[in-house]
Write a structure and sequence with these properties.
- It is a single chain.
- By secondary structure, the protein is an alpha/beta fold.
- It has 11 helices and 9 strands.
- β2, α5 and β3 form a beta-alpha-beta unit.
- Helix content is 40%, strand content 13%.
- The protein has a 9-stranded parallel sheet, with helices on one face.
């Protein structure tokens, strides 16, 4: 790809709402001048979305004992001796206090995240009670990530004030069966479509560095575009001892940042969100903030501590030119 072609694609995305092809995305992936590629992605972000930077925090509301065989996950019952905590449901007071505290510290969104194929109705009752109390005491926006729920369960979440539902597709459809056999991409798409039908916005992304090719990362981004996803978290695999991917080699920063940039070219109006695995490139996070990113999970992840404190993150986001309020 020439510099002129890169400029033309960028301009068409900005001015014509152009949807790039898979072939064009592959050309961008191999573009030699990475600084120019990243700058173009960031210009698309700025022109299509402005300088608003969305922040969210999560709490591990149900941990361990998961029936699914996802090869990357420390909470899977098929993994061994991962050190993952096991509990049925988070303490109500702990979850409410965390949400209120994070709201006071400027975090935009808060989500309960549960392990398992899907949450039980009993646990859903507990979650809704927690959401109701948070809504009474804080203006932080509410999200949920609770597996392959029924349409009726998703409607209950919507009625409780939840605005976004998170259900990662995890990887490219062509690669997913190599990583998980206990559920399918089609199961996830059905949940996503039901969530959309009841009026929830969708947060869905995945994990890179699990052995997929760059072409499959592009396939994942294209699939998310087709689903009309509003927020796309991009996790970087941090191999955990005891999981099937414990010996997976790490990605380079160039591979990570190029993937971020491609996700922006393919999904110009989505929130492209830094998520788990940020510790792998935290020394270069300032660069990551200029490759098309405009959102991040802050604070702790599900089973690991955060790369930086909320204050360190928000200070850096502001320093790099972002606004944390819409």
């Amino acid at each position: 790809m020439t510099e002129e072609k890169l400029t033309e694609i960028k301009k068409r995305i900005i001015e014509e709402d152009y949807a790039i092809s898979e072939a064009e995305a592959m050309e961008l992936a191999t573009y030699g001048d990475k600084k120019a590629l990243y700058a173009a992605a960031d210009e698309i972000r700025k022109k299509c979305y402005g300088d608003f930077f969305d922040t969210c925090s999560i709490i591990n509301a149900r941990s361990g004992r998961c029936s699914e065989d996802c090869k990357w996950c420390a909470q899977s019952g098929h993994a061994h001796d991962t050190g993952c905590k096991v509990y049925e449901f988070v303490d109500r007071e702990e979850a409410v206090e965390m949400a209120i505290d994070n709201g006071r510290r400027g975090v935009n969104r808060f989500s309960l995240v549960t392990s398992g194929r899907k949450i039980s109705d009993k646990n859903l009752d507990e979650a809704i009670s927690i959401y109701n109390e948070i809504a009474e005491k804080s203006d932080i926006k509410l999200c949920a990530s609770m597996g392959l729920l029924t349409k009726e369960q998703l409607q209950r979440l919507k009625d409780s004030g939840v605005g976004h539902y998170h259900c990662n597709i995890e990887t490219a459809p062509s690669f997913f069966p190599k990583l998980c056999t206990t559920h399918t991409i089609e199961d996830k798409v059905r949940t996503i479509e039901w969530a959309k039908e009841v009026g929830l916005k969708i947060c869905s992304g995945g994990i890179i560095g699990m052995g997929e090719t760059m072409a499959q990362r592009i396939e994942m981004a294209m699939f998310l575009r087709k689903l009309g996803v509003a927020s796309i978290p991009v996790n970087i695999l941090m191999p955990i001892k005891g999981t099937k991917l414990e010996n997976q080699p790490p990605l380079t920063n160039e591979e990570i940042f190029t993937t971020f940039a491609l996700f922006r070219f393919i999904n110009p109006k989505a929130l492209i969100r830094m998520a788990g695995g940020r510790k792998g490139y935290k020394s270069e996070q300032s660069q990551a903030l200029h490759v098309g990113i405009n959102a991040s999970i802050v604070g702790d992840m599900l089973t690991t501590t955060g790369a930086k404190s909320i204050e360190e993150d928000t200070d850096e986001f502001k320093k790099e030119g972002y606004s944390l309020t819409e």
